[in-house]
Amino acid sequence: MDMSQYLDLFISEVREHLKSISKLVIVLEAEPKDRATIDELFRSAHSVKGMAASMGFKQAAELAHGMENLMDRVRQGLEIDSGLFDILLAGESALSAMVDDIENGGSGGTGSADLLARIAAYDPSTGTESDGASAGKDEGRASRSPDIEQPAAKGETSVVQQTVKIRTTVLDRLLKTTGELVTVKHRLSITSKSLRNRDFYEAMEALGKTIRELHDQVMAVRLIPLSMITERFPRMIRDLARESGKQITFSMSGVEIELDRSILELLGDPLAHILRNSLDHGIETPSERQAAGKVSTGRVSISVFRDKDQVEIRVEDDGRGIDPEKIASAAVAKGVIQKEKASTLSADEKLLLICHPGFSTAAKVTGISGRGVGMDVVRTTIQSLSGIMSIETEPGKGSTFVLRLPLTVAIINVLLVTAGKFTLAVPLTAVGRTMELKSEEIALIDNEEVFFLDDAMVPVVSLSRLLNIESGPHKGETSSLFITEIKGRRLGVKVDRLLGNQEVFVKPLARPLSAFAGLSGATVLGDGEVVFIVDILNKVL
Amino acid sequence: MMNSAATRYMLFSTGGLRYAVNVDYLDEISELLPEYPIPQSPRFLRGVVNIHGKLAVVFDLSMYVGTGPVKKGCNLLLLKMPETSLSIVVEQMERMISGDEIVSVEQASGAAGLTTFILLDGKAELLDPEQLIDSMEKSLVA
């Protein structure tokens, strides 16, 4: 029987089971007696064995069979220690490599006799493969495995849902078509106004409503929980903690919050890099922590919150924190910034120097967080998603990397404004309110324009100046501006004219436009005009 | 891309110079379209156009290589490269040639260090779109 037609399904389902195994091992490590987790691990190994055998991948089936037998022995009462977790994770890694090989046209690799022998010989009571001994990692014994808090991983009853697998390219096309429909709708709206035909106008209203419903459905289909990318982190933290001899409690909350898949696809690596940095540079060794009067186990967490149509991801550690002055000194020493310029930066700006390409304050380059080539990519990626990154830190107490991102980047509401010869779009998520101010309401203090709002002084900058473009002639006695808020600080952004709000389909910028700082996309208005979307938050920061 | 007898090039002229581009890089030749300005852009990027829903930057090659702005463009040459959307405004589309029509090649002798093809009816600067976009991005970041 030709089984090749089932290959895609086999690969995708085995990968799901392997992800589950990796997650369950970490849960079991925190609660080694948990029967539900032991049973679930047994079932997952059993499923992989069955699928691999039916597809004729003998090596994968044998390895999964070995893992299944091992878990059966655990179910029968075999005493376990940390060696079990190492073996199971090694099995999961080996099976993942086999699936990769199969996907690339191979037969699943050359076998795993050594690993199978380790699995068969595992018995802590005889001292075989216990506490990581066979892996020869003394540091594995010295450091306690991280406690991973996984409140939702066990005891859940699975709900059978009617689902169908669909290629992501189809979802992308669906979104693009819906976006184009939004643009066409705006074109028709303009026409309907000039026609002044009541029937046509009503039909347009109905069409608009239907497109809105379609858009909501398409977006809902594309939303994926953040846990899709965070589920690998407990394993990663565990391995890094062992490697560096650090003790860590890792927790995640809010990862069930959903984001558009186009954002999630780009978010995994930046988050992993921030976590690696926290482990490598933030969390101290147990002895350093004790000397500093801290508990020997460090804490790292990811917390996710939803705020209207934005999501905030906080990666927090209780490590040594970051000293802005030390960062600034290092930046000057490395020639990243001039000494005079560094002295004018605020503490927040000094912290963000770690995002400069090639910057690293680590005394030595480590395999964990690399050579300082990561944080610049992290910040650039977040900015490319119209998000912002900030750092909160207190030396000796810890650091928090805060990422604020839109839930979706495809169809957004914008404020249309003019500045000089340009019509520009500002995402409404960056607009607090719009105002018209009389000339006398704007004062000059220290050569900077300010005005008072709710008894607080708000600085004013012009959009033309921010974007370094020529502003239009100032007409009349009033100035138009919108208020944006950055890290709790309000800022008035002056424009030539406020044109109003509109829902637009964002077209991502291709090369060479993607090299422009301050522009996050473009859109086509109903009359065909191409308008750029200003990344105001990152432009001001 | 390798130059061989089978390789085909499109000849076009702009800013008083003749250029050749490998046809594998050509996506479409379009009429001039309404251009919308790009904030903060250098003069060699004239604006963007909307070609069937796809936004393409209008690139003034003549301005870029230092032979002054294109005076009277007639077409846009939309290039085909991954994750890139670039069209070159040209003054005159000429003809397609094959590699065996190239008499000789002079490396880095032409405008902006381009390779020059010597043809029977004159010469043409060989445009390498990938190199072009790389150097353009570097100048934009700088």
Shape of chain A: flat
Instruction: Name the poorly predicted regions of chain B.
Output: none
Could you estimate the helical fraction of the residues of chain B in percent?
Answer: 10-25%
Question: Mean pLDDT of chain B, nearest integer?
Answer: 88
Strand order of the largest sheet of chain A: 1-3-5-6-8-7
Question: Judging from the principal axes of the Cα atoms, what is the shape of chain B?
Answer: globular
Strand residue content of chain B: over 45%
The tally of strands of chain A reads: 19
Put simply, the count of helices of chain A is 18
Beta-strand segment tally of chain B = 11
Task: Write down the secondary-structure element order of chain B.
Answer: EEEEEHEEEEEEH
Q: Measure the end-to-end span of chain B.
A: 28 Å
Largest sheet of chain A: 6 strands, mixed
Write a structural description:
The complex is a heterodimer of chains A (541) and B (142). Chain A has helices at residues 7-30, 35-55, 58-75, 82-103, 113-121, 138-142, 168-195, 198-222, 227-230, 233-244, 261-282, 286-291, 324-333, 339-343, 347-351, 375-384, 463-467, 536-540, and strands spanning 147-149, 223-225, 248-253, 258-260, 298-307, 310-317, 388-394, 398-406, 411-419, 422-427, 433-438, 443-445, 448-453, 456-462, 478-486, 489-495, 497-505, 519-524, 530-534. Chain A is of the alpha+beta class. In chain A, strand 9 (411-419) and strand 10 form a beta hairpin. In chain B, the strands form 2 sheets. Chain B has a 6-stranded mixed β-sheet with strand order 8-1-2-11-10-9. In chain B, strands 3-6-7-5-4 form a 5-stranded mixed β-sheet, with no helix packed on it. The longest helix of chain B has 13 residues, at 129-141. In chain B, 13% of the residues lie in helices and 46% in strands. By secondary structure, chain B is mainly beta. The relative contact order of chain B is 0.23. Chains A and B meet through strand 18 and strand 19 of A and strand 4 and helix 2 of B.
